[in-house]
Amino acid sequence: MESIEFYNGHQMPMLGFGTFELTDFEECKEAVKTAILSGYRHIDTAKRYNNEEAVGQGIKEALEESGLTRSDIFVTSKLWLTDFGREHVEQAYIQSLKRLNLDYLDLYLMHWPGTDEARMIDTWQGMEDLYKDTNVRNIGVCNFLPSQLEALLAQVSIKPVINQVEFHPEFTQKELNVYLKAQKVYLESWSSLARGALLRNNLIKQIAEKYGKSPAQIILRWVYQQGIVAIPRSANPTHIKENIDIFNFEIKDEDMQQISSLDKNERFGPNPADYEG
Ligand SMILES: NC(=O)c1ccc[n+]([C@@H]2O[C@H](COP(=O)([O-])OP(=O)(O)OC[C@H]3O[C@@H](n4cnc5c(N)ncnc54)[C@H](OP(=O)(O)O)[C@@H]3O)[C@@H](O)[C@H]2O)c1
């Protein structure tokens, strides 16, 4: 599995496994286990997904079965808005670790910027404390607009390594992409498949047919060829295996551009400018 390298020299596998909406304990545990046994080395969860215990159990069972060790897996969780404020961050991190039954995270993310800029900066300062004082390997953010990142970077000493945002062929975040590249902060795509909606798109289906791949593989390969990390989610073992099988073909430039031309510059998720959970 290819990795990206953050500005701090740490690496992150380019394809991970998402766990949003996997709230049934058994289903979530089995999905995470299947993912790791199928070759995924990167798992994405959050306090807000109410599944950290199941994710942790899936990781534990997969490590036992495969002989892999904790350091072979990159695990991300996220700080929810109700835990914002510098003084709450460490406790929220420790609670996530307890639920996951892990002793460190590879990446801890602020889940949203929130609408109060002073609270956002204060919370990031708590993330910086965490990075300096604990064993968290990397800290980053989700759902930050360029203006919110600009405000953050102007006032803090440690940059986020990544911004995890809605990104798929219908919402390609052009302005944010340019800004993040200039700052050497990576973009990570959530809902790369637009929760499955884009798998029914005619152009995606045509290109999939041309390459002899599935629509999901085409979209995930399109994300990967842009140097962007994807974390597709599935509860279906066939889909889980299909989604990681994207490293044996290449989408030609003209088809990459065709897929990118689906961009409507319209998010389906909440707008970070006014989202408070
Ligand atoms: N930071 C944030 O604010 C934020 C927000 C949203 C999501 N995320 C993260 O990003 C991850 C991915 O996003 P997402 O879960 O919203 O959606 P997604 O990965 O775009 O789509 C998931 C949907 O696609 C279907 N699917 C997956 N692979 C498929 C395949 N090969 N063929 C057919 N259908 C397929 C799944 O159904 P089946 O189960 O039937 O396969 C599921 O309904 C999340 O799980 C979460 O970890 C982060």
| C-alpha end-to-end distance | 34 Å
* Beta-strand segment tally: 10
Output mean pLDDT.
97
Regions with pLDDT < 50 over 5+ consecutive residues? none
By CATH, the topology is TIM Barrel
Protein name: Aldo/keto reductase
Organism: Staphylococcus marylandisciuri
Keywords: NADP, Oxidoreductase
Pfam families: Aldo_ket_red
What do you see in this structure?
- The chain contains 10 helices and 10 strands.
- A hairpin with a 5-residue loop joins β1 (3-5) and β2 (11-13).
- The protein has a single domain (11-196, 228-236), classed as Alpha-Beta Barrel (TIM Barrel), CATH 3.20.20.100.
- The strands form 2 sheets. The protein has an 8-stranded parallel sheet with strand order 3-4-5-6-7-8-9-10, covered by helices on one side. Strands 1-2 form a two-stranded antiparallel sheet.
- Helix content is 41%, strand content 13%.
- NADP nicotinamide-adenine-dinucleotide phosphate binds next to α9.
- Belongs to the aldo/keto reductase family.
- Residues 15-263 form the NADP-dependent oxidoreductase domain.
- It comes from Staphylococcus marylandisciuri.
